Automatic annotation (TrEMBL):
Organism expressing this protein natively: Pluteus cervinus
Protein name: SEP-domain-containing protein
Superkingdom field: Eukaryota
Length: 118
């Protein structure tokens, strides 16, 4: 894989005596969340990445092999990650009902403010 992938384990180099060395810069394990929906997947609550998009299929292949593009996961290249999976495959990706209600309340509040100014 390319040098811009995240890894499940920190990289190690071998010393002259054959023993692995500790990475020079130890980074904290990044925790990321991936949700699988009926029509695609999302990372960290972001936009839907549809299953039928070939680019997204490659990303899933990389994740399944233990590596993924660091930029997609928002980590440094080679940084160890813990990927937490949520399966919501019976649901279409979309705004959660709680958020819909919040958006509706905010819209009403904003409209009432605008009406009071006119």
């Amino acid at each position: 894989m390319s040098g811009d992938s995240a890894s499940a384990k920190p990289s190690q180099t071998t010393l002259g005596n054959g023993k692995p060395s500790t990475p020079a810069k130890s980074e904290d394990v990044a925790i990321r969340h991936i949700t699988f929906w009926k029509n695609g997947f999302s990372i960290e609550g972001g936009e839907l990445m549809r299953y039928d998009d070939p680019n997204n299929a490659r990303i899933l292949e990389q994740i399944n092999s233990g590596r993924a593009p660091a930029a997609i996961l928002g980590v440094n290249p080679g940084q160890p990650i813990e990927l937490r999976v949520t399966k919501r495959t019976e649901e279409e990706y979309g705004i959660a009902p709680v958020k819909k209600g919040l958006i509706a309340r905010l819209s009403v509040s904003i409209l009432s403010v605008i009406q009071s100014l006119t």
